[in-house]
Give the backbone structure.
Amino acid sequence: MDVSQAVSSRHSVRAYLDTPVPGETIRRVLAAAARAPSGGNVQPWHIDVVAGEPLARLKALMAQRAAETPAGETLEYDIYPSNLWSPYRERRFKVGEDMYARLGIPRENKEARRRWMAQNYQCFGAPLALFCSIDRRMGAPQWCDLGMYLQTVMLLARAEGLDTCPQEAWSLYPQTLGRFLELPQERILFCGMSIGTADPGAPVNALRAERAALEEFTRFRGI
Ligand SMILES: Cc1cc2nc3c(=O)[nH]c(=O)nc-3n(C[C@H](O)[C@H](O)[C@H](O)COP(=O)(O)O)c2cc1C
């Protein structure tokens, strides 16, 4: 698979088969992804990988936490700015509605949407999750470095025939995750990522999120 194929075939997969991810495969991906660039080569990413029995324990714990505290815990960062504005607000709304349409869950069925949201914490059935954290003292440039690392992981996962879903939903439970992963106090959880093999029959996996046209986000000069 070349880079273009990896980029075009990557999409967020939200239903997985239970096919395990071999330990050597995830180690290969995470090691190779460390070739991602970072400002000053500080490599600010920290990754916790959870699979097997510990992941079963985490999923059970999160089923309980999501049921008793559906709105989440005390947040450590805002996922979006408040009152997201145009055109970002419409894009966010559209992908959500497109996803729920695939799932056959109407807007007014809040309970079904809540149940679906809780699927995040079951890794959508994936057999492996990783969690990305960073030193709290790092700023926006280093958080961008995390994005470069994580995208590299997602592309290399494609080359191994694996699928992924990055998940900020995990940041709604920073205290539970912090305790479970035994993160040091100075570390803040950015996101989780489910990794595994897509369930090809799941309607939600047919979703391809739209993208803005090139002209909407670019300006060219001299070319
Ligand atoms: C940092 C980050 C966090 C995300 N968090 C979630 C999440 O919690 N749950 C989810 O279902 N999708 C999540 N997504 C997936 C986005 O919704 C998805 O990337 C976007 O809609 C574009 O779709 P695509 O990845 O299929 O191309 C996240 C993506 C990123 C990059």
